[in-house]
Write a sequence for this structure.
């Protein structure tokens, strides 16, 4: 007698596992930009995602063929990522070809979803074909291959400089990010073209690659970009705030007059750590970006934005607006109320009048305590998720690429990497970002 496999498998349970995996995947991705969650919070919610993905793998090949393979055609990004991840994690012989087969006709959004799943895979489950895509794939697939190989610290079969010099913007940017990840030193003449690119993604990747390659000229380029007041200055502003010392606030201050630049400037000032930056933020508490100014001020001084130091959210703010905000880094910031309280301007000014005498203008601070390598590392555990990416970048730059924490991967992997960083000699993180003052 033939017994239907879908009855034996409780098919509806596996459909629910995939639906829930897609839902939790989206929640998990958004948490990386959260202003009010820390890594421990994300690790707890991550377990729900991993449990659903594990259940799909444990369903076996029948579930993979009948449920995961059809889901590869989904136009829902999170569902596609979950399906690719579970399918390849199962190790079925036909899985890599099934994923490769949909890439040729995939939309840019689908390619991004597949790339994200590949980046997060256990290296043992990674297909072999990313290397072949470098020579044979379309431009979007070459970019995907470079991103995936870089994420897994796998050296590409073709020199990265070839993609930087000859690739279209998405390929060049991916190659530059891979070079940084793999600690491939690029010559200055290779980087110059990328640094002058009109594409911010290429320029930003070149800035990081240039600094990790030891080119001091990169700081000059960074300063010139900010002085020129071009578009998308989030990363150049952040780098100057990290590397310019007590004078960094004066380099950024003039851009606060431009409303389009103000959110990114305030965000960057929060990583300066100096009194001059805190007082610059204080001046902008009553602007439309006051919640960002308060966030930055708090990060420097340690003032907890709660109780009498916060104001009521505007009546116009709704829950739907909060849910639609998906900031992910410089240039994208949460609205007031989305874990970002509006400041009580008068109360904060009064607090600073009393507290300022405790702060030395020549000392860098993090949450009200003098900055040290230990406090920088502690911030990776305790700072809000949206700020951790910049802290990890500082760790990478100070260690000259020795430590590169992937802040958008599974928390369990991040925690293991952070323990390794904490065990390293403090001197690795004590070296200055810039060897001479930036002015």
């Amino acid at each position: 007698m033939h017994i239907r496999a879908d009855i034996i498998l409780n098919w509806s349970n596996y459909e629910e596992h995939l639906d829930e995996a897609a839902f939790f995947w989206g929640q998990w991705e958004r948490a990386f930009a959260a202003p009010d969650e820390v890594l421990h919070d994300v690790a707890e919610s991550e377990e729900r995602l991993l449990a659903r993905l594990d259940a799909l793998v444990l369903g076996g090949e029948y579930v993979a063929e009948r449920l995961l393979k059809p889901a590869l055609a989904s136009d829902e990004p999170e569902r596609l990522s979950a399906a690719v991840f579970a399918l390849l994690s199962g190790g079925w012989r036909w899985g890599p070809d099934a994923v490769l087969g949909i890439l040729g006709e995939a939309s840019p959004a689908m390619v991004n979803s597949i790339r994200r799943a590949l980046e997060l895979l256990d290296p043992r489950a990674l297909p072999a074909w990313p290397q072949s895509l470098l020579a044979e794939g379309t431009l979007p697939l070459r970019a995907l291959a470079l991103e995936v190989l870089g994420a897994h610290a796998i050296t590409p079969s073709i020199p990265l400089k070839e993609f930087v010099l000859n690739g279209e913007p998405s390929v060049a940017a991916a190659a530059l990010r891979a070079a940084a990840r793999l600690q491939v030193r690029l010559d200055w003449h290779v980087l110059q073209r990328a640094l002058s690119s009109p594409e911010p993604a290429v320029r930003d990747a070149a800035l990081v690659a240039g600094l990790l390659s030891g080119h001091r000229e990169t700081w000059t380029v960074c300063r010139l970009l900010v002085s020129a007041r071009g578009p998308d200055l989030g990363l150049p502003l952040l780098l100057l705030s990290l590397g310019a010392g007590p004078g960094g606030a004066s380099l950024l201050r003039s851009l606060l007059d431009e409303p389009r630049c103000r959110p990114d400037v305030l965000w960057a000032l929060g990583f300066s750590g100096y009194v001059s930056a805190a007082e610059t933020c204080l001046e902008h508490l009553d602007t439309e970006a006051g919640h960002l100014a308060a966030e930055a001020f708090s990060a420097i001084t340690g003032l907890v934005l709660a109780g009498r130091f916060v104001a009521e959210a505007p009546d116009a703010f709704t829950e739907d607006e909060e849910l639609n905000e998906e900031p992910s880094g410089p240039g994208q910031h949460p609205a007031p109320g989305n874990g970002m309280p509006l400041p009580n301007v008068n109360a904060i000014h009064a607090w600073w009048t009393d507290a300022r005498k405790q702060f030395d203008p020549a000392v860098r601070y993090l949450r009200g305590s003098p900055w040290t390598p230990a406090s920088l590392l502690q911030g990776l555990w305790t700072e809000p998720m949206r700020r951790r990416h910049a802290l990890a970048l500082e760790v990478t730059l100070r260690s000259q690429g020795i430590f590169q924490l992937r802040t958008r991967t599974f928390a369990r992997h991040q925690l293991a990497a952070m323990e390794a960083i904490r065990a390293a000699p403090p001197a690795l993180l004590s070296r200055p970002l810039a060897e001479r003052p930036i002015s």
